């Protein structure tokens, strides 16, 4: 991310821009914010960041104070707004001489600029097409940050005759301007490369439980988005909470019809799919099943989303459109007869004149056998989404659509089976006049040539990390910064490989490293300025820490996959490891019974999710023995060219990294246990007695990374209350949990308290986050106890609360009430207590005792009416019970 210009180095600003606008101009404000965030800036805008429950006045005040610049959206309505006036005047008051350019006026209509506004240089966005407005906005913003508007190229010599360009020969003749509509066509030449945009729509859960759930899909789309962005695509993932028919149709229509002229678009539609046969041989259609489709309605496909995008394509300005249809058709036989006809992939697709359009289908799943306990979707046909990630992970990338089709088809071939023309893993359907050999699906590199190894998406983020701005500018810093970037790039590629093995893991969060890095940046901004700036070694560890954490844990869990219960029949793993896993599972009898009950009920999704959670905990139980091999592999390339230990190798020593990674999931007191062997030290010297000598405060780094990890809300590290609510009637949706974690905010309260704000759709998530925040609060307390030895920790927050964690609202009402949450969350424990397991430690004995209690109750029911009849002389009202 941009740091808001050189004049803000070391700033603790949370945002680069605060967009000030009045409600009448909200569409303009959101459009401007979208362009800025897409270009890498941090933006605060009321429409997106001030959700229900937010203190509006406090949030606006924080936005003005904590943003590097205020961008005022000027219009007549804005100038009449009292709040708008207060906001731009606050920016002027913070920078009265405009030396730091805190206020950026942007006119969206022809309006006056009265008073002080007239003294600040502004620019206009009205009266121009969208592409021109986008280019104008980003160019002017960069000029504001740089402080000058020097052109990228040398200006033309003013003494040349009119019409001579930079590359015109001395005697070139200039053709006259076209006299018809459009004027001089040379002026219409684009000032930036053609755009590549992608929309990923994934539907992994359904209201009708008879439709197969695809819990792996959410994480897979996140990974695909990362890869697409790393090669130059601007990628949007459709809101997973809005997966009904109308919402999906509107998203696809808006994406296609709103494309920029000449753009290349990629649309991925993933989820369950059906085919509806029409009255004629060529009148059938293919459909994506939305989340709200209900089995029983006939014809079922009338409730679904057509794969055919010819409607919105008739209004698109894009030049090329590629639609990837990752349709799962592996239904149970009784469900199949109710939802689909035969013929998936052969549905009619309307023409789109003037646009190169092609469809890539996941091949049909008919005829594939499914083993008991095996995920049906994986057994039938490998996922097109997963194949796309595989292709994007390899170099060189396919240069044409034809090459992409071949690569995807190869990646999706069924194991031990040659794909015939009738049984292809991937079906290509180009529409005339599209030529797959001339269709370029991926962006070229900046120099116009294909690149064999573009930097990983993590690399740029690591290089922009604010920790580097807190270090002294020296050759040693530059060298270690470059080495850290190379390490992060290597970590990213190792992570991509490992995540393919564990792509079905519902506890995996591909966004974790990015969130953790941003939290660490926030904490670095809280360190006091002055002589105790960060050393290059400290900066390197803080920058690489989040990516090391995500990569190492992903690799460890992936290597445990052969012992995973749902994978035992698919992989020939280590029998000893499987035996160890079974022993570990025995230490969690309640969780084991949950898996068993879910399988018996046919809820394989819940059984698999709980099993994956056990796999994570098994890895945690003996993690210290797993660090060594993984870290040795990851750091193999850190040695210097002469075979000597490099500075990077000394900074990223495996024993030091293992201790730091252990601290991230350890108890709050772990880093204050100084007497423990191998404990992180307050101060050590790296590369002593050399020109590269520098201090390293290991415990400071450990605390910053540990607090950053807690604030990032790692799904797999949350309290077990979440897994306790899988496989039950009111089950947790892990996809919704991941979405909630990504949207979580740590809002400021008072001078040194951070309050977690999350909208929860299940009480289990609320309780988990409350307990997790309590652990973070304890960690912050431990950090402040260490300020005598590490004074830099004094600037960190002192407390963390979960007061902003509450039930999400649906139609103005909370989706659950918190009052009964704690009792509901103890359902399994109550059941075990009733069964007497904790009392008798033997289930058979507990059942025998329960039977005896029932007999005693029956005897009492018989004795009570007899007693009443004898003592009162008349039949008792309990007589009716005697027959029972």
Structure write-up:
- The chain is an alpha/beta fold.
- The strands form five sheets. Strands 6, 7, 8, 9, 10, 11, 12 and 13 form an eight-stranded mixed β-sheet that branches. The chain has a five-stranded parallel β-sheet with strand order 2-1-3-4-5, sandwiched between helices. A three-stranded mixed β-sheet has the order 16-17-18, covered by helices on one side.
- A hairpin with a 2-residue loop joins strand 19 (809-810) and strand 20.
- Helix 17 (536-559) crosses helix 24 (698-712).
- The N and C termini lie far apart (75 Å).
Explain the layout of strands and helices.
Elements: E1 15-20, H1 26-38, E2 43-45, H2 46-49, H3 56-66, E3 67-74, H4 76-79, H5 82-94, E4 103-107, E5 123-124, H6 130-146, E6 196-202, H7 217-230, E7 234-237, H8 245-257, E8 264-276, E9 285-288, E10 305-306, H9 310-313, E11 320-328, H10 333-339, E12 356-362, H11 376-380, H12 384-392, H13 401-411, E13 426-430, H14 457-463, H15 475-501, H16 512-525, H17 536-559, H18 575-586, H19 589-600, H20 604-621, H21 624-634, H22 647-651, H23 654-664, E14 684-686, E15 694-696, H24 698-712, H25 734-742, E16 745-749, E17 753-760, H26 763-785, E18 799-807, E19 809-810, E20 813-814, H27 821-825, H28 827-835, H29 837-840, H30 843-872, H31 879-882
Parallel strand pairs: 1-2, 1-3, 3-4, 4-5, 6-7, 6-8, 8-11, 11-12, 17-18
Antiparallel strand pairs: 8-9, 9-10, 12-13, 14-15, 16-17, 19-20
């Amino acid at each position: 991310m941009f740091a808001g210009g050189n004049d803000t180095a070391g700033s603790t600003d949370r945002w680069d821009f605060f967009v000030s606008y009045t409600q009448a101009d909200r569409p303009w404000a959101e459009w401007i914010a979208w362009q800025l965030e897409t270009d890498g800036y941090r933006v605060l805008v009321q429409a997106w960041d001030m959700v229900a429950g937010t203190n509006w006045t406090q949030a606006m005040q924080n936005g003005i104070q904590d943003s590097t610049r205020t961008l005022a959206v000027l219009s007549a309505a804005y100038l009449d707004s009292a709040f708008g006036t207060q906001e731009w005047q606050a920016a002027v008051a913070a920078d009265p001489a405009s030396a730091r350019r805190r206020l950026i006026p942007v006119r969206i209509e022809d309006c006056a600029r009265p008073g002080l506004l007239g003294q600040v240089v502004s620019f206009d966005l009205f009266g121009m097409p969208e592409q021109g407005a986008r280019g104008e906005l980003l160019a002017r913003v960069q000029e504001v940050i740089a402080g000058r508007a020097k052109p990228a190229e040398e200006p033309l010599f003013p003494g040349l005759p009119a019409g001579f360009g930079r590359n015109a020969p001395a005697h070139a003749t200039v053709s006259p301007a076209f006299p018809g509509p459009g004027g001089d066509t040379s002026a219409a030449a684009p000032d930036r490369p053609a755009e590549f945009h992608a929309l990923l729509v994934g539907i992994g859960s359904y209201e009708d439980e008879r439709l197969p759930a695809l819990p792996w899909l959410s994480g897979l789309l996140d990974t695909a988005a990362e890869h697409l962005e790393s090669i130059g695509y601007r990628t949007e993932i459709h809101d997973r909470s809005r997966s009904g028919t109308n919402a999906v149709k509107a998203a696809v229509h808006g994406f296609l019809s709103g494309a920029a002229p000449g753009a290349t678009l990629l649309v991925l539609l993933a989820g369950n799919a059906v085919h509806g046969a029409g009255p004629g041989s060529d009148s059938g259609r293919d459909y994506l099943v939305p989340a709200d489709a209900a089995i029983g309605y006939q014809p079922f496909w009338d409730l679904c989303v057509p794969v055919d995008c010819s409607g919105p394509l008739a209004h698109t300005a894009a030049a090329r459109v590629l639609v990837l249809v990752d349709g799962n058709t592996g239904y149970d036989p009784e469900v199949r007869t109710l939802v689909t006809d035969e013929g998936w992939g052969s549905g009619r697709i309307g023409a789109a004149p003037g646009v190169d359009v092609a469809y890539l289908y996941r091949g049909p799943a008919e005829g594939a056998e499914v083993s008991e306990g095996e995920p049906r979707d994986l057994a039938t046909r490998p996922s097109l989404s997963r194949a796309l990630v595989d292709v994007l992970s390899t170099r060189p990338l396919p240069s044409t659509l034809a090459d992409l089709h071949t690569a995807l088809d190869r990646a999706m071939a069924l194991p031990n089976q040659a794909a015939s023309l009738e049984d292809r893993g991937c079906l290509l359907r180009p529409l005339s006049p599209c030529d797959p050999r001339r269709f370029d699906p991926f962006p070229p590199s900046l120099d116009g040539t294909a690149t064999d190894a573009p930097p990983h998406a993590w690399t740029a983020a690591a290089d922009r990390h604010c920790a580097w701005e807190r270090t002294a500018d020296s050759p040693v810093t530059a060298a270690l910064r470059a080495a850290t970037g190379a390490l992060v790039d290597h970590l990213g590629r190792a992570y991509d490989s490992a995540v393919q093995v564990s792509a079905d893991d519902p506890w995996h969060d591909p966004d974790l490293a990015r969130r953790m890095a941003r939290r660490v940046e926030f904490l670095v901004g809280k360190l006091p300025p002055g002589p105790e700036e960060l050393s290059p070694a400290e900066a390197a560890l803080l920058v690489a820490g989040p990516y090391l954490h995500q990569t190492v844990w992903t690799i460890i869990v992936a290597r445990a996959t052969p012992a995973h219960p749902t994978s035992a029949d698919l992989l020939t793993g280590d029998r000893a490891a499987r035996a160890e896993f079974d022993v570990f599972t025995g230490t969690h009898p309640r969780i084991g019974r949950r898996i068993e009950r879910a399988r018996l009920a046919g809820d394989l999704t819940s059984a698999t999710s709980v099993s994956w959670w056990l796999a994570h905990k098994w890895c945690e139980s003996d993690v210290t023995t797993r660090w060594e091999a993984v870290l040795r592999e990851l750091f193999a390339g850190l040695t210097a060219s002469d075979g000597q230990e490099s500075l990077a190798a000394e900074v990223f020593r495996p024993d030091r990294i293992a201790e730091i990674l252990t601290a991230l999931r350890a108890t709050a007191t772990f880093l204050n246990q100084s007497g423990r062997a191998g404990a992180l030290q307050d101060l050590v010297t790296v590369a002593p007695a050399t020109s590269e000598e520098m201090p390293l405060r290991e415990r400071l780094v450990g605390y910053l990374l540990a607090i950053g990890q807690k604030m990032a809300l790692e799904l797999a590290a949350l309290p077990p209350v979440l897994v306790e609510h899988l496989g039950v009637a009111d089950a947790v949706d892990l996809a919704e949990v991941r979405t909630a974690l990504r949207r979580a905010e740590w809002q400021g309260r008072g001078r040194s308290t951070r309050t977690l704000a999350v909208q929860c759709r299940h009480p289990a998530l609320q309780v988990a986050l409350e307990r997790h925040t309590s652990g973070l609060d304890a960690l912050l307390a431990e950090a402040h106890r260490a300020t005598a030895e590490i004074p830099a920790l004094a600037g960190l927050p002192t407390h963390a609360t979960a007061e902003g964690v509450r039930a999400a609202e649906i139609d103005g009402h909370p989706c659950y009430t918190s009052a009964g949450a704690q009792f509901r969350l103890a359902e399994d424990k109550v059941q075990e207590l009733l069964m007497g397991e904790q009392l008798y430690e033997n289930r058979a004995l507990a059942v025998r005792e329960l039977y005896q209690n029932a007999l005693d109750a029956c005897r009492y029911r018989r004795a009570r009416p007899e007693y009443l009849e004898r003592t009162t002389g008349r039949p008792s009202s309990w007589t009716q019970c005697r027959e029972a």
